[in-house]
Amino acid sequence: MCDTLVATPEYTGGDMLFAKNSDRSPNEPHLVVRVPAMDHPAGSTVRLTYITIPQAAHTLETILCKPSWIWGAEMGVNEAGVAIGNEAVFTRARRGPDALLGMDMLRLALERCTTAKAAVELMTALLEQYGQGGNCGFDHPFYYDNSFLVADPDEAYVLETSGRRWAAARVDGFRAISNRLTIGTEHTMRGGVEPGFNFAKRLTEPVYTHFSGSKLRMGASCSIAPGNAPDMMAALRSHDPRDAAKIFPRGSVRSVCMHAGGVIGDHTTGSLVARLRKNAPATLWVTAASTPCISAFKPVFFGIDSGAPVFADETDAKRYWLEREMLHRGVLAGQVDAEALREHRDRLEERWLAEEQALTDKGAGSDELRAFAARAAAEEQAMVDAFRPRSVGEAPTAYWRKKNAALEKLQA
CA 214: distance to chain centroid? Predict the structure, then answer.
């Protein structure tokens, strides 16, 4: 389960804004990695999660937010300012053999495309050629089709798929997508369907779609109607009012900041907010941690390697995520005061957001931006060190006791 949001320059009165929560197994490390631009020999191939395809002659620099075991990514941004997020959607299409995952299509598009429209065209061409399919679950089988929000500094698109069929529409204003098909007959690009075909009505699988809670989460995102980066962060952190008092131990699919627990198996494992600017590098705000309601969004600048929370080595990225996961498990065990943690984090973020705005408004150079990002990362690390328990105590429910035991094995 996931939620992805975009607000176009016409809506914000400034830059394109993009945001996404990745909701997956609570024990699945969510890595933030920088993949450099590369040239590849003629005739070379690339191994994706399940299949191998021809490699492009040149791939762009990307920052990816990805599950630890999958080649592709849940969301990311490339050096051209293209941002993409994917969603699981449940459709009437028959399950095919292992092929492309939606996350693989997303990474391929970021590595190869310099505009949002080109990314849509590439992903749909790959879908038609190779199909989609394969287990996407970390600790249990999970199969689904995919939808995407694709943005660059100028324009954004929604792309939805069902098997090898697809439909796409341009976004004007604000748009949120979740775990459901949303495009009716308004598609302006399509494959495998005719003009006027009602994509969502005809192809939605109703049972999984209903129980995903996606209708409620989409409504919550739209009610906030984010118009700036702090609004986007607030949307990704939001809880349904019915869940707020009990969200940590029990969980709910109704909340955009999704918490696992009981029968709820998905948890927000990582979050991204991106500010895509014309004629200037993008600013990314990443948690590189689960549970955004208690995690900090740290500033990252494209083309400027300032270290954590972005890593070149996936082992380092995994270690960073696991360290922060101890805060979440400490909250569950009553060893970490969530409200005190939030208050500390909010003071840091308020200062970082103001400084990022001031630096980008004046066109600060790479040295200033690098120093700012590194200082913010150090301040967040100090917060983590101050609040993180030395050991995780007893979890409040059988569900979380089981998850904690499994996480200990993962850390070994």
Answer: 16
25 contacts: CB under 8 Å, gap ≥ 6: 137, 138, 139, 140, 260, 265, 266, 267, 269
- Distance CA(213)–CA(194), nearest Å, equals 30
Q: 116-130 and 102-112 helices cross at what angle (nearest 10)?
A: 130
CA 12 to mean position of chain CA atoms: 21
2 given a catalytic annotation = yes
240 in Cβ contact with 220 (< 8 Å): yes
Contacts of 196 (CB under 8 A, 6+ apart): 185
Q: Record the pTM.
A: 0.96
User: Which residue in 39, 175, 19 sits closest to 85, CA to CA?
Assistant: 19
Report the C-alpha gap between 164 and 121 in whole angstroms: 14
Determine the Cα–Cα distance for residues 315 and 174; give it in Å rounded to an integer: 36
Q: How far apart are CA 362 and CA 207, in angstroms?
A: 51
The rounded distance, in Å, linking the Cα atoms of 261 and 82 is 35
Residue 263 one-letter amino acid: V
Give the C-alpha separation, 409 to 407, whole Å.
5
Burial 273-291 (b: 16+ CB within 10 A, else e): bbbbbeeebbbbbbbbbbb
Packing angle between helix 314-332 and helix 366-387, nearest 10 degrees? 40
- The closest of 147, 84, 119 to 282, measured between CA atoms, is 84
Q: Tell me if 306 sits within 8 A of 366, measured CB to CB.
A: no
Q: Which stretches in the chain have pLDDT values below 50?
A: none
* Set 2, 113, 257, 293: catalytic member: 2
pLDDT value for 390: 79
| Sign of the CA dihedral running 262, 266, 269, 271 | negative
Q: Which domains does the chain have, with CATH numbers?
A: 2-312 (3.60.60.10)
Identity of residue 132: Q
Rounded distance, CA 174 to CA 80, Å?
A: 22
Q: Is 372 left (phi over 0), alpha (psi -120 to 50) or beta?
A: alpha
* Other Cβ atoms within 10 Å of 235 Cβ, number: 25
